[in-house]
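Box 3.1. Reading complex inputs
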Amino acid sequence: MSAIIPNSFVGGDKGQWRVTKMHTVVGDSLPYASYVTVAEGHLSKENTTEAAWVLRGSKTHARYSTRVEVEQLNARQAPLGRVEADCARLIPICKNSEWWSMPQDERRKIFEEESGHTAISMPYLPTIARRLFHAREMGEPFDFLTWFEYSKENESFFEELLLKLRSSREWQFISREIDIHLEKVS
Amino acid sequence: MSAIIPNSFVGGDKGQWRVTKMHTVVGDSLPYASYVTVAEGHLSKENTTEAAWVLRGSKTHARYSTRVEVEQLNARQAPLGRVEADCARLIPICKNSEWWSMPQDERRKIFEEESGHTAISMPYLPTIARRLFHAREMGEPFDFLTWFEYSKENESFFEELLLKLRSSREWQFISREIDIHLEKVS
């Protein structure tokens, strides 16, 4: 749980996941890719022939959650790679300079006490499986790569979660967000 | 203040800083280098001919400090590169899996309420200038690269700070620490 998991998302013309929609929510867009491959490690664009883009990040430690929240999340959350999870979403995100110039206590207050990030998300677990990859200190174009897996029949349930999060105060600090809809290649 | 600053420390047989001592405080050692070059960006070992090692990190945002602590630090701290600062210390550090598996509230409590990391350090500013580079999510061998600059006459004052920090509860979670003593090449 405490070791980092380096990960790369490769957008190109083949992969395990087919892109059904790419939507720029806010900020600069990302070139279109037909497929996404999820790979362990930090791949460079040079290693990946004909990739439209390579987004790299690492699963590391929780940045805002308290012990109580971590235990609640651990008790409810589902693993990635469930057979029934035929849909995924890759949502790369940047927060703005106002967010990053705030100290920890103020970011935490907005994240949870004002926006209820964990509280809002909790009822959507374990139906939605999720993993967060950090990328900011790597100097990557996005601060976070968020990855979600669910079955097709729960798509509207997932959209409901996104709508709630995007209406929160925390989302006023989002400067770039790309919403990439994916279906598992059978 | 909110933009990240990617940085590399290159250990080799030439550079702006001459190594006067390399001491492994805990954990695996690092190969000896006679000089250290401080460079902007994330250099790869392939780009740096004849380097013994390249340690990369990024100055990012504060992880534990509250608004009050950040304001106190900003009011007291000195910039890097002062003419009189002819000594430096590069101290790469790893924390253990027990540390990283703790949620934010518990890490904060140990960092400040129990160990007084900021409170202990405050009287040593601005005599000691410091900058912290994060490297954990990059998958680098160290979690942090800490850099200090001071004048030769303040060396024992700096040693006093190190002694206090190394006696704190926080330091019980340090699994690797290399202390690299440096003098500016005139």
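In summary: Strands of chain A lie at 5-12, 17-26, 35-40, 53-59, 87-95, 129-134, 144-150, 174-184.
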